[in-house]
């Protein structure tokens, strides 16, 4: 696979992030193969299908409707594209059991994509969910008593 194919793959990913940021989820999902595979932290095995991706994208859109996406670095080799992306927005809807706080959020993700026949076939994502949750969970004074998982991290 040559430099032209790598550039084409990176252009595909830039287009996907632009569509995601503008909430054009339907068109963005069309950039995925039918048998798209997602590797997500905390999930025992890979997830399959465009619907899985769409569900995750809708969850983020509903919780952070003003989310801005800044692709900080992008590298390509062969059929893979690696991306370091920075997300910023406001917590305006329920996310992981936390109701809207109206707090600003900012977190990064390291993501690797495999491209097949001009479409996104597979992703490995590693978002800083712990950092995101720390920004939206209730303040220390508002949380339940001792024994919270965060208490052990602060010692």
TrEMBL record:
Coiled coil: none
Signal peptide: none
Top-level lineage group: Bacteria
UniProt cross-references to InterPro entries, sorted A to Z: Cyclase_SnoaL-like, NTF2-like_dom_sf
One Pfam family here: SnoaL
PANTHER family membership: ESTER CYCLASE, POLYKETIDE CYCLASE SNOAL-LIKE DOMAIN
Protein name: Steroid delta-isomerase-like uncharacterized protein
Organism: Nonomuraea angiospora
Biological classification of the source: Bacteria, Bacillati, Actinomycetota, Actinomycetes, Streptosporangiales
């Amino acid at each position: 696979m040559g430099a032209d194919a790598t550039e084409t793959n990176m252009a595909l990913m830039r287009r996907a992030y632009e569509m995601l940021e503008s909430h054009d989820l339907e068109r963005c999902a069309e950039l995925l193969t039918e048998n798209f595979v997602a590797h997500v932290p905390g999930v025992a095995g890979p997830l399959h299908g465009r619907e899985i991706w769409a569900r995750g994208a809708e969850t983020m859109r509903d919780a952070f409707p003003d989310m801005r996406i800044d692709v900080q670095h992008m590298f390509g080799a062969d059929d893979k594209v690696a991306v370091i992306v920075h997300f910023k927005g406001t917590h305006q809807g329920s996310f992981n059991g936390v109701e809207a706080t109206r707090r600003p959020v900012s977190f990064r993700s390291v993501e690797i994509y495999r491209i097949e026949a001009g479409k996104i076939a597979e992703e490995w994502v590693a978002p800083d969910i712990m950092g995101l949750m720390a920004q939206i969970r209730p303040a220390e004074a508002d949380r339940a008593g001792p024994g919270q998982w965060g208490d052990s991290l602060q010692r």
